[in-house]
Amino acid sequence: MNAFRFQTVPTVVVEFGAARRLGALMREQYPTGTRLCVVTDGFLHKSGLLSPALADLAKHDWQVSVIDDVIADPPEHVVLEAAQRARAANAEIVLGLGGGSSMDVAKLLAVLLPGTQSINELYGIKKVTGTRLPLVQMPTTAGTGSEVTAVSIVTTGETTKMGVVAPQLFADLAILDAELTLGLPRAATAATGIDAMVHAIEAYTSAKLKNPISDMLAVKALDLLSRNLLPACHDGNDRNAREAMLVGAMFAGQSFANSPVAAVHALAYPIGGIFHVAHGLSNALVLPHVMRFNAPATSKLYAELADVILPTQPAGSDEAKTHALIEFIDALIVNTAIPRTLREVGVKPNDIPRMAHDAMLQTRLLVNNPREVSQDDASAIYSAAL
Predict the structure, then answer these.
(1) What's the maximum distance between 2 C-alpha atoms anywhere in the chain?
(2) Could you give the C-alpha distances from 64 to 60, 72, 86, 316, in angstroms and in order?
(3) Among 41-50, 192-201, 291-300, whose mean pLDDT is lowest?
(4) Distance between CA 202 and CA 357 in Å, rounded?
(5) Which residues pair with 135 in a beta bridge?
(6) How many CB atoms lie within 10 A of CB 236?
(7) Cβ neighbours of 13 (radius 10 Å)
(8) Distances from the Cα of 88 to the Cα of 15, 67, 113, 199, angstroms
(9) 10 Å Cβ neighbour count for 61?
(10) Does pTM surpass 0.90?
(11) Which H helix or E strand runs over 13?
């Protein structure tokens, strides 16, 4: 066995209705804390979904400042403005409450506030040199796994993204309350759920840091996600399905935080950056096509995943099981009713060269792919997805 290191959030709370006693949970974690900065988005704040959590925070003597202007794929200026507001409020503790974007911004605030580095100095792998403020994460979608990862993604230009990857971004506490995900629209449920499945699949086949703990988590994640995605899509108030999706997404996050994602994400980023497609949907649009490309190098691993996801399939070769797995993923995406082709999100054939060029810039991700991807390969994958 190769040597490996596995890191994750030290404390996880999984509890239906936990948001209703958030103040008490926070007080258990930080007995002497006072000033809390909650990072979220405008829709969640205005919808009233956070009201019980905010009420319980006040009940337990937390002085709360809410930053609610986070948007999807947060631009750098949003992060910097949020940091300025949190600094003005003398925040002692940061809570990310929302989707992956809110949690990603919360991570960066926790690092930027006490530190001396500019945000540009943080981009890359292990570039954070200082400590951070205490940090708690609470997801409202089952997809990104950001509550248990050490990655934050920032939109740095009109169509480009950069990542901050450092162990300081692991939170102290992740709180998973499936009640916050009840009623999530079908399209968002589907896209974020497929995103979580991508995390597990890419972690299990990662070329560089694949390890037994990540493998175990990826397998359990796929088991939960594959069985519960369609029930959650069909009935947005299915508590059991919602909780299974939330836990599955967390397991997938813990897995890829230590065995990193690869070409699906690399090819998804230009789709999101250029055409403003949500991250989860961008991943879903290329997932089956990247899997077909990787199959010659990963048939044994895909066959192992097929045994988990399709336990009743007849015995067969690794190649046959791989084919069955990809066909299952394809059918799952169809049954969620989200877009299946790049054309449906506005991509035209003459966009592919630019997309392939931009995908090649994601060297941080491509180095993890089990099969080397050239620019011509990227073009061919995009063409197949068109």
Answers:
(1) 63
(2) 11, 23, 10, 58
(3) 41-50
(4) 22
(5) 94
(6) 16
(7) 15
(8) 33, 12, 10, 36
(9) 10
(10) yes
(11) strand 11-14
